[in-house]
């Protein structure tokens, strides 16, 4: 996001990866209320709201909270799991999400235990996260290279699965985020050169078209295969209380 603040209510594409994931989950489970931890300006909440879910967000940065609230979203300031506003701590949620932020929990077990407590019976926990065995680290990069020293570390899909099960969660599904894969075909000398090689609009449009084709093939044949999952850049884990 850099120095720019994301507009959480910008139009949602019907092909948006998260939109499709959430729509599928809502179709299969009885979800009416949701909590998004690390909500930023509330984009995830907005997507859930458009799907008919009453969603609340928890975000530590005041300016992001204020911006989300100015867009009509229910975003509260607080640090999980210690500083949860009473408006949220006394509720039970059918769905809780951690979208690209689980690496910031300083005590993963304590945080997962609190999430388990906040979920209603048979509630769903949704994780989308970059993982530690990604191809991104194949050249020996530090696990702190991507997000800096603010993170506590980068867990793998298998370690997250273990921690979730240890708290009491049932793993429903683990899959990769296919949009990350096509760029690996362009990895040269352990450096991602897409921005350098493809600098024109037409080239980028061609890449997006090829990416869609590759994603269809990848999603159909490889996205849930163990040997591919160990190197995926990002994973989605769906667990049930």
In the CATH classification, which architecture applies? 3-Layer(aba) Sandwich
Approximately how much beta-strand content do the residues carry? 15-25%
The average pLDDT is: 81
Helix-strand pattern, N to C? HEHEHEHEHEHEEEHHHE
Query: What is the CATH class?
Result: Alpha Beta
CATH 4th-level superfamily: Vaccinia Virus protein VP39
In the CATH hierarchy, the third-tier topology is known as Rossmann fold
Strand line-up of the largest beta sheet: 3-2-1-4-5-9-6
Separation, N- and C-terminal Cα atoms: 32 Å
Residue share in helices?
Answer: 25-40%
Tally of individual domains = 1
Number of strands: 9
How is the topology of this model organized?
Layout (H helix, E strand, L loop, with lengths): L16 H12 L4 E5 L5 H8 L3 E6 L2 H9 L3 E4 L8 H4 L3 E7 L8 H11 E12 L26 H11 L2 E7 L10 E2 L2 E2 L1 H4 L3 H21 L4 H4 L4 E7 L1
Parallel strand pairs: 1-2, 1-4, 2-3, 4-5
Antiparallel strand pairs: 5-9, 6-9, 7-8
Textual characterization of the structure:
It is a single chain. The protein has 241 residues and is an alpha/beta fold. The chain has one domain (17-177, 225-240): Rossmann fold (3-Layer(aba) Sandwich). It is built from nine helices and nine strands. Helix 5 links the parallel strand 4 and strand 5. The longest helix is centred in the last third of the chain and has 21 residues, at 201-221.
Give the gist of this structure:
Helices cover 35% and strands 22% of the residues. The protein is of the alpha/beta class and 241 residues long.
